[in-house]
Please model this.
Amino acid sequence: MAKLSIRSVSKSYGAVSVLDDVSVEVEEGSFVVLLGPSGCGKSTLLHAVAGLNPIDSGSIVIGDRNVTNLPARERDVAMVFQSYALYPTMTVAQNIAFPLKMRGLDRRTSDEKVAGVARLLQIEPLMSRLPRELSGGQRQRVAIGRALVRDPRLFLFDEPLSNLDAALRTELRAEIKRLHQSIRRTMVYVTHDQTEALTLADKIVVLKAGRIEQTGTPLSLYDDPDNAFVAGFIGTPRMNFLKAVVVDDGKTLTVGEARVDISHLKTGLESGKTVTLGIRPEHLDEKQGVALSLAVDVTERLGSTSYVHGALPSGETVVVERREDQPRFGESITLRFQPKRARVFDEEGRRIR
Amino acid sequence: MRPAAAASDPTKHFFQPIIVCLTVASVALTLFVIWISLHDLSLMRAGREKFVGLDNYIRFLGDPRAMAALWRTVLFTVLATVIEIALGLAVVLFLDRDFAMKRLVRTLLLVPIIMTPVVVGLTWRFLFDPATGMANYLLSLGGIDQVDWLGSPRIALFSVLVADIWQWTPFVILLVMAALESAPTDPLNAARVDGAREWQVTWYVLLPMLRRALAIVALIRAIDSIKAFDLFYIMTRGGPALSTETLNYYGYIVAFTNFDISYALAIAIILTVFTNVALLTMYSVLFPKTGDR
Model:
């Protein structure tokens, strides 16, 4: 077990920069999620940590060892792949024992460890099967077992649940969480699924186009995003973004007819400036506050709540989480929100606090 | 499919006649060949053949020239297949990286395959010419004595083998390369992370994944080698002193030099049976039924 420091790592393929001065600190025993849309460089970064991808500049330190120039086999990390990456010609038992075999462990110790892992992951009945005789969930369990068996300094997960169906994904997600809580090892997990990130992570690193957009705990990213990208990427349904104009010497915003008090912001804004107001769907169903009128388009009923899609008089589309009523197509409803719950972003998408 | 559905499946009207035609043609021909091989049909005395039972087959067992040819066929097949597979695999593993001329190299690999055997045979005959050939010239550069490549009974078979390897190793390379490219790369990376050195990645993960492709290529090459005729005909005509006469070639001599048709067909049948037994054995070793790995 060890901490991981990724320091100013850059990498480009020809003229395309995939990682641009990325630095991440992963504390010992913590669970860090690299989150971002596809093509943001998160998998490239993970492969670089594993030693499967060389980097152009920067350094990677695991524990107190600089591993930047070491091959994958000497880094003592374990990795779980999206494609499971099981050895197709070996049985489950042989798959799990492979890392031990490569380390020259004697047969008896190896067998004991493999049996222990199999017990932990409840895959004992599968031990003599071949990977292609397993279901997706079972394969990923075996892959996790192969990572667990040798107690590496660092666990890397590369979108391990993306190939599984929804129910299995939830189940295995909880299992990974439980695993982390019981063995308390340093884990780095790559995903594009913000639900996975929010539920698993101690710390989330949001990446976009090879750059870090924000680093923080799940709640801080959700409540206090640094920019419109993070605000929009985290949370489902995504945050509503409304165009607003600064009036009244920076003390008020106008959104259509409505006036929003922003005197709590520390940064002064010039009158006449256009900004973006971000409001989460669950913050638009208040008893009091600024009122907006919504022409209802579609209502998605989810049981305990409903998501109402509609348009403001300005034509901007908005999603609201409603708890009590389920308005229908054509109805007009009033939305209310507290100005302090809304987030303000400038034209470049930077947060104004 | 349910039995009822199978019975009323209209597509059978398309494939069944073809199956019947093919079956009749192959079964009828085979039976006819067996029938002739049980006679003593010779073109030297046409119309006077009579039924001789298994005489031709018994004659084969007591025919030292035939037995020597059979042994040579086995030797040639085993050597050609093993060397071509090993060499082809080595080249594939060596070529498995990105380099500038990859496409060009791949195109050049096709050249030996598309060349007609006549051209290949003649080219190698010229290369192996003891007086004017390139092979002896290269040996002379190294200060090594000249070799009578196609004229020495101890060497000639191996000279033909060299030509066969030159022509067919690229075939192995292309097929194995295709298999390699369709193989998933994640398990290789997983093995690297799991602590395997490059040779261990190749030995424990990559080669087992290529096993099927290698087995199929080996089968194809083995079948072709058993039936090899063209290179022998052009390079040595079975000589010198019968030292390159394979069973297939001997069958040809019996039929078209000695006109002993029945005996030639008996040899052909023995060769066929021998081939089938050998290949089925090979197949069951390579693809064991249990586990179907």
